[in-house]
Amino acid sequence: MANYSIKADLMKVNGAFVTNIQGKTAVKKCLCIPIEGSGLFLGKQGCYLSMTAIEMQTPKFDDTHCVKVSYDKADYERMSPEERQAQPIIGGLRPLLRQPAPVQAMPATEEEDLPF
Predict the structure, then answer these.
(1) Does residue 107 surpass a pLDDT of 80?
(2) How do strand 4-8 and strand 63-69 relate by DSSP bridges?
(3) Cβ neighbours of residue 62 under 8 Å, at least 6 residues apart?
(4) What is the tens place of the pLDDT at every residue in 38-58?
(5) Are 93 and 64 in contact (CB under 8 A)?
(6) DSSP assignment string, 20-62
(7) Is residue 54 a contact partner of residue 66, using CB atoms and an 8 Å limit?
(8) Cβ of 40: how many Cβ atoms within 10 Å?
(9) pTM to 2 decimal places
(10) pLDDT at site 1
(11) Helix, strand or coil for residue 83?
């Protein structure tokens, strides 16, 4: 089974924006995504974003799949055909290629250590 690299632009998730938030010691730039209407959902152990990787018939930029947000059935059925079609591609997926381990050269020795 192949391994894949996934890159997602979370700014393309519905409702996402960047803002500065004051922390205890400093102001931090933060990504904010509202849970309602974005495809995010709260589970027992976290906040999740379901995504679907769709294989592209003509791959671009080494990506073999495009990544879109998956909506639950009720939310998807409430969307108009135009809204469904307008859902942005938030990322891409490409196979990770195994790099051969670099061959290390043996250090040169001044003396011959072979008996022949």
Answers:
(1) no
(2) unpaired
(3) 94
(4) 889 999 999 999 999 999 998
(5) yes
(6) EEE-SSSEEEEEE--STTTSEEE-SS-EEE-EEEEEEEEEETT
(7) yes
(8) 18
(9) 0.69
(10) 63
(11) helix
**Pair of tokens at residue 12:** 């393309």
* 8 A C-beta contact, residue 8 and residue 20: no
The tens digit of pLDDT for each residue in 16-41 reads 999 999 988 899 999 999 998 888 99
Show the CA angle centred on residue 50, arms to residues 69 and 92, nearest 5°. 55
Residues for the chain: how many in total? 116
Q: What's the CA angle centered on 70, arms 19 and 53, to 5 degrees?
A: 100
Rg (CA), the chain: 24
The Cα–Cα gap between 4 and 35 comes to 27
Token pair listed for 104: 């290390």
- Three-state DSSP at 5 gives strand
Q: Enter the tokens of residue 51.
A: 């995504």
Tokens coding 99 = 């790099």
